[in-house]
Structure formats: C-alpha cells, structure tokens
Specification:
heterodimer, A: mainly alpha, 10 helices, 0% strand, B: alpha/beta, globular
C-alpha cells in the first residue's frame, strides 16, 4: 500500500470542493447551521445536547456516505475510472483516498459545528481522544458503506446509485435515535437502532461529551471494531477493480 | 515484450457478443494498429488486454503474467477512447496526482510531469484548469497522462480524434519518438490508418468481434490485389487503347489501370509513350491502407 497514492487520490477528489468556494461555504456554514437551528428550536431543553451530536453525525455520515458513493458513480459515468483502473492502484488504496477526500471535505463543517456548539454551550467535550476516534470511525465507516454500494451497483445508471446512497444515508441518520435519547423509541425499534452503526458513532461522541445514549462504551467499541474489520475485509479482499462500467 | 491473447470472448449481458474467439501473439512489436469498423470490438479488446474487463472466455497474458497483476499494470500507459478529466484541477495538478497514483515518488512525479508537458506541447496550459480547455486540448492532456512514468506498454484508443491535422502529425511524431527512445510497445486503435502506416509494424483488423487480418502494413496492402493504380486521362472521349495489363477500367475519357508489380508498371509506361498523342495526364498512386482494409472486410477473410 502506497501512502502517496492514497494522498493523491484524496487530493484529486477533494480538490473540486476545496476550489469551489461558494459550495464550500454552503457545506461548512449554511448546511449544518440550517439543520441545527430548527432542530434546536423545536427540541425540549433537556434533549438539546442530542441535537448537537445528531447534527455532527448527520454532517459526518450523510456527506461521507453519499460523496463516496457518488464519486465512484461519477467516475463510472464519466469514465474517469478507466484511467485509475489501469494503474496499479488497489481498491483499498482508492477507498482510503476517498476516506481522506471525505475528511478534507467535511472536516471544516464538523469543526464549524463543534466550535459553534461549544460557544453556545450546547456541547461540552470532556474526552477529546474519544471524540476524535468517533469522528474518524464515522468517516471511515460511512465512506466504506458508500464505496461498497457504488461498486456493488455495477449499473452505469448514475441516478440509481445516487438514489440508493441517499436512501441508505436517510435510514442511517434519520431513522436512528441520534437527535433524541434511544429511550424515546419503543423496544423493538430500539433493538433495530442498536444494530445500526450510526447509534454507536453517536454514542462515542456522546460519551466524549456527556450525552447519554444508554449504551455502554464496550458494546459500541466491540460493535464498531467488528463492523470496521468486516468492511475493511470486504474492500481489500472481496472487491475487484474490474468490470466496473 | 510478449503479449498473448488466446481465444478471447466477451459477451455483454448474456446476449451482446463483442469478441468472438480472438487469438494472436505479439512479440517485441513497436507500434500495432488495431482497426475495424465501429462496433467491431476494438475498445472491448483493449479493455480486456489492459485488465479493465474480464473476458467471458479465454485469457490474456503480458510477459506471462495476467494484466491484473500490479507489476504488469505498472508497465501500462492507457488513453481510453472517451474519459472525462478532473475538471477542477489544473493540467499540472492532474498530471502530478496521476503520477503519484501510478506509483512515482514526488520528485520523479515532478520530473515526469515536466517531461510530458514538454513532449505534448502543454506549456502555456499547464496552470489552467482543465475545464477551461477546449475539447482538443483535453484530448492532449488525456494522451499525455498515458505517458507518465515511462510506460512500456501503451494502449491508445483513438488518440488523435478531434485534433487538427497539424497537431495529429506532431503527436504521431511524439508517440513514435517515445516508442523508439524507450523501446516501448503501443497498441493503437485508430481509423486514420494511412497516417501511421509508416510507423506501424503490425496491423490487426477486427470485424464483428473476429480477428480478420493480422500482418504487416505491407501484407495488408498486398491484400488489395494491386501495387499501383495508374489513371490515364485521354485527350478525347474514345474507345481507349488496348492496355497491356489484365485489370483496367475505362470510364469516359479516363482509363484506370491496376498494376501488380514494378515490371508491369514499366511495361505500362513504355506503352503510354507509344500513345502519348492521345494522353492528357497520367497519375500514379499506391493503394491506401484504408482501401486494403475495406477489401479485407469485404472479402470477410479469416486468418
């Protein structure tokens, strides 16, 4: 595995956003704050810290998953992937490049939200390493899910890939209790929510900032370790960079 | 370099047969032309050879290894038939990142980018964003990237489409100079056969997914059945002289003669001297590769 290759892929895909200042401002300022404010206003005071974590998770997971999926879909549609496929780049290198690209693209948005929440005293991070671990795992998992969806859906149809990625992002973010405590969900739905990675990422961020999702740290760590290993195995050993378009 | 293609079939979606048992071997070739009508399977064959597509049946090996092997891919330089570029990057950024992706170090990448920018005359556009370039310049950038990292095996799919004739001539020179300087091999898909016939050492013709001809440009030219075509314009409309060759046509005041060899041509010239009073103009030309190609397709020959 070549780090320079991963760096180059990351820069190549992040550059469109980094050079597109208007869209960058939209993503880093307008998008997160436009979600945060209405949610903040309609949420009872005792649940407002959940809104803070929920907004971070939404920005992190939704953007990373959809972007990873759409990047490969766009590569296939525009046949840019042909140039990449004929180099010695491996699927795991391409994927890690996408993780880096997503981190570069969403890091300012996350920083903006975290700082804003900290200033308005909605977020009180007491365990910074755990918070950073939660963010990093979020980037990694969302990108790997997006990447696997895009590779699995071999159809050239860009629209269908975009639709599927958005539906999955919606399920992972809005059907999971991250904007409110899981105790608000009826029992069976709570069990479904616990099976999804979103809640465990929110749990890590919550545990790092005194927001209680009622799941212990060990459970989340085991869950995320198993999921991360499985997805990494799929990306590195099961995905072939062939017959993609 | 030995490229071995053995009984390669490619079927899309279970019903569209793009390649039908293509087999050939190339050993230490320099420039190989891959030609054929639209839909003949040229691009599919290239994509199977460069490892983008799996053949439905058969196999490809490059120096005994599968094109999927990383060290084989490290030898490749590929210009796809149609591929967009990363439009937000400048030409230099795009080439630099691709060099790193191909496995070069930072310093080698910078040196390679400078080399291809020089070779492909991209100096004044190096700092421009790709989206600001015309279609022709984008094609040049796409072609230039294939030469990053001094590849030993180039797959160039219609590299000069959309370029003006002057630039096409310049680029053929660049490509052939590179092949000679670095001892590399290029598989070139093109419809402009006559532009490259002087450089090519092999021609492969595909038709409806089958390889219908493989040989040197000269062997392809021989397939057309004559070596020279002599057009004799007569001063007046007449029945025409009794030409001493086996194949000729008379149309109005013009006689079109197909000559098989040099001796026959000399005899014809002597004969023309004897009838010079009724001859207004004589034009001698050789058959083009395109004509030979049409002839091979017409005959539907199978090697």
């Amino acid at each position: 595995m070549k780090l320079l290759r991963i760096y180059a892929i990351g820069m190549m895909y992040a550059m469109w956003m980094l050079k597109n200042k208007l869209f960058y401002i939209y993503l880093t300022l307008f998008f997160p704050i436009s979600i945060l404010i209405p949610f903040y206003l309609i949420t009872p005071e005792e649940n407002r810290p959940y809104v803070a974590i929920g907004t971070i998770v939404l920005t992190l997971l939704s953007n990373s998953l959809v972007t990873a999926c759409q990047d490969l879909a766009m590569d296939k549609l525009l046949k840019r992937i042909a140039v990449i496929l004929t180099t010695p780049v491996t699927p795991i290198e391409y994927f890690l490049g996408q993780v880096l690209s997503n981190a570069l693209q969403t890091f300012p948005a996350i920083t903006t939200i975290v700082l804003t929440l900290y200033i308005v005293r909605l977020l009180n991070i007491t365990n910074i390493p755990l918070f950073i671990a939660g963010l990093t795992l979020g980037w990694y998992l969302a990108t790997s899910i997006g990447f696997i969806i895009a590779v699995t859906l071999r159809a050239r149809d860009y629209q269908s890939i975009v639709i599927v990625s958005n539906v999955i992002a919606f399920i992972l973010v809005f059907l999971v209790p991250i904007y409110y405590p899981p105790t608000h969900l009826p029992g069976p739905l709570r069990n479904v929510a616990i099976a999804l990675p979103t809640l465990h990422i929110a749990n890590l961020l919550g545990l790092a900032s005194n927001v209680n999702y009622y799941i212990d740290l060990t459970t989340s760590i085991i869950y995320l370790a198993v999921l991360t290993s499985s997805l990494t195995f799929i990306v590195s050993k099961r995905i072939k960079f062939k017959d993609l378009y | 370099m030995r490229i071995y293609v053995r009984d390669v079939w490619k079927v899309y979606g279970g019903s569209v047969i793009a390649l039908r048992g293509v087999s050939f071997e190339l050993v230490d070739s320099r420039l190989v032309i891959l030609a054929g009508p639209n839909g003949a399977g040229k691009t599919t064959l290239v994509r199977v050879m460069d490892g983008e597509l799996s053949p439905t049946k058969g196999y490809v090996s490059i120096d005994g290894l599968s094109p999927d092997e990383a060290r084989v891919k490290g030898l490749f330089g590929v210009m796809p038939q149609e591929a967009e570029l990363h439009e937000y990057l400048t030409v230099r950024e795009y080439l630099y990142y691709l060099s790193l992706i191909k496995g070069l170090s930072r310093s080698d990448a910078r040196r390679e980018v400078n080399r291809v920018i020089d070779d492909f005359m991209l100096h004044e556009y190096a700092k421009r964003k790709i989206r600001e370039l015309s279609g022709g310049f984008k094609r040049r950038v796409l072609l230039a990237q294939a030469f990053l990292g001094t590849p030993q095996l180039l797959f160039l799919d219609e590299p000069t489409v959309g370029l003006d004739p002057e630039m096409r001539v310049k680029l053929w020179r660049v490509i052939t100079k590179y092949l000679n300087d670095y001892g590399a091999t290029a598989i070139l898909v093109t419809h402009y056969l006559d532009e490259v016939k002087g450089y090519a050492d092999k021609v492969l013709l595909l038709h409806k997914g089958k390889l219908v001809f493989m040989g040197t440009p000269k062997e392809l030219l021989d397939r057309v059945g004559y070596r020279y075509r002599v057009r004799i314009r007569l001063t007046s409309k007449s029945e025409g002289p009794d030409i001493p060759v086996t194949k000729y046509f008379i149309r109005d005041s013009e006689v079109e003669v197909f000559v098989h060899d040099d001796e026959e041509l000399l005899n014809l010239m002597y004969f023309i001297r004897t009838i010079k009073d009724i001859v207004a103009e004589v034009v001698i030309d050789r058959p083009s590769l395109e004509e030979s190609y049409m002839e091979v397709l017409r005959l539907g020959e199978v090697t």
